Amino acid sequence: MSHEPIGSDMSNEPFGARLRAAMDTRGPLCVGIDPHAHLLDAWGLPDTPEGLASFTYGVVDALADRVAVFKPQSAFFERFGSAGIAVLEQATIRLRDAGALVIIDAKRGDIGTTMAGYASAYLAEKGPLACDALTVSPYLGFGSLQPAIDEARAAGAGLFVLALTSNPEGPQFQSARTVAGPTVAGAVLDGLRELNADADGLGSFGAVVGATIASTDEDLDIRGPLLAPGLGAQGGTAEGLTKVFGAAVRNVVPSSSREILGAGPSATALQDAADRANDGFRRVLGY
Ligand SMILES: O=C(O)c1cc(=O)[nH]c(=O)n1[C@@H]1O[C@H](COP(=O)(O)O)[C@@H](O)[C@H]1O
């Protein structure tokens, strides 16, 4: 696999274009950074801010220059209060400096003005947690995401909106019909298709579609990226992706956390696990 830098000339491109270039160069794998207490323990680290920092920077040092996309899970940093958020900030900066893209998984969603606060924290170019894309929740209405959409457009960042999540409870809401007719998930996908309509190549507004959903009748051709968590620990497989995503499979960003992190703390073992996963995804996703 290639460990080439993505190229600094991409820095002014929109998120979708940068994501496509990064995945083409380094492979499609997204490594989720989820520092669970049990993983800190398995790595021989204490469940403290210091342990969190050693774990997180261990992953960063081993993989930042060879993996295209990282998805730190904010919850596991928030667990340690401001000390944990400081580690998330540092890790995001280090990963981006190494040419990787960072999706902060915080699943934010609120009414317009409050959403604007989240957008300025995570999406504004000079925001304290400025990242390449943020996961957001549409359950206050797709339109409630507008401030994040505006900020993402201004900053060349992206969003991943929950559509068909990997957890078994998801369909209770996501398969329900909206007043206008489509399912909740279908309405989210329609909204994203509209946002990506004028994109040149891959759009910047993506959907979260779990790798664990057996199949779907929804139209996943949103002209934007499809973040697919649920691989490995939750049962999703590389081979299953073609069944779930069909013709849209080329836009899938396969995300794996525990499956890769469990290989540590050895940097070589982490690199082998990431390379193996990336090779498998390249084969299945048509790279
Ligand atoms: O938005 C996500 O990334 C997400 C959506 C979803 O439907 N399911 C899901 O598991 N996730 C996240 O993806 C990660 C999955 O971790 P592993 O199961 O260890 O690979 C966690 O951080 C979840 O919060």
From TrEMBL:
Its EC number is 4.1.1.23. The keyword Lyase applies. The keyword Lyase applies. Keywords: Decarboxylase, Lyase, Pyrimidine biosynthesis. It catalyses: orotidine 5'-phosphate + H(+) = UMP + CO2. The active site is at K107 (proton donor). NCBIfam families: pyrF_sub2. PANTHER family: OROTIDINE 5'-PHOSPHATE DECARBOXYLASE (PTHR43375:SF1). Belongs to the OMP decarboxylase family. Type 2 subfamily. This is Orotidine 5'-phosphate decarboxylase. It comes from Kribbella steppae.
